[in-house]
Hints:
This protein is an alpha/beta fold and 287 residues long. It is built from nine helices and 14 strands. It has helices spanning 25-36, 87-100, 120-125, 137-150, 172-185, 210-220, 238-243, 255-258, 273-282; strands at 7-10, 40-44, 64-67, 72-75, 78-82, 103-108, 114-116, 152-154, 162-168, 191-194, 200-205, 228-232, 246-249, 263-264. The model has no long low-confidence stretch (mean pLDDT 96).
Amino acid sequence: MEFKPKAIFLDMDGTILNHENQVSIHTKDVIDQLRNQGIYVFIATGRAFDEIEGIVPAGFEVDGVVTSNGMAGYVGNEVIFKHSLPLNLVEEVIKRARESKVYYELFPYGYDRISLKQDQSYVENEITEPKPESVGINEWLSRKEAIKEKIMWVDEIVGHEFSKFYFFAKSKEHINRWKEELEQLKKEIDFTTSISSNHNVEVMVANVNKATGIQEMLKHFNLSETETMAIGDSDNDLPMLRLVHYSVAMKNAPDRIKEITDDVTEFTCDEDGVSYYLKARFLTEKN
């Protein structure tokens, strides 16, 4: 490939994260080498900022992070841009989620993710074994971990700014009904939804996605979209993959993602696909 980007944006889940929700030391090493060569490397993830530290190797560094599907951007711990869901939308969505008994996590800026205590029983019930075959092991493990130690169960909503909602259901029918409910609510309050698996949906501010977040990050670094590459694997990556100059799908991505990209990795996320791809194309043999 002749194109050598000045900036590379990497998705996390299903891309640099394997299905055990870990980033390999090999991926870290390749990122370090790329940055040493003067190539900017960024993360563009649906995860909130506070989720990242626990799933990357010690010493893992990138030039910036676009989080919550474009809702916020960070360079180190500095906030470069931030959007927040309005409180009236948060309150209405929780009320409707309760009526539909849909698992939810709300991510306030500056706090752990929260769910209300009055919803705890049905939220926890969504993660009872056995795991449905159609639910990815990485998503299942993340929900298990959230229930066990990540969710802060509260009596009332805390915080004043919110990066996103995450919703999950074991049943595809259940989550699809909830997606339809959200589409109806959009007629009353404008917002954006994003999907990264057949069992989830996320809610962000209207007209915000990974592409808008990347544009804001590029502006901060005085970089152009024509100088960028991105690697991803799922539907919430589509805006990002369509924005950049050169787009790459993971081998483990669905065909609908591969069809719109310029290239596909030779290996999956469980085989260090990103590490092998970037090393083969941009790093010299001595590296």
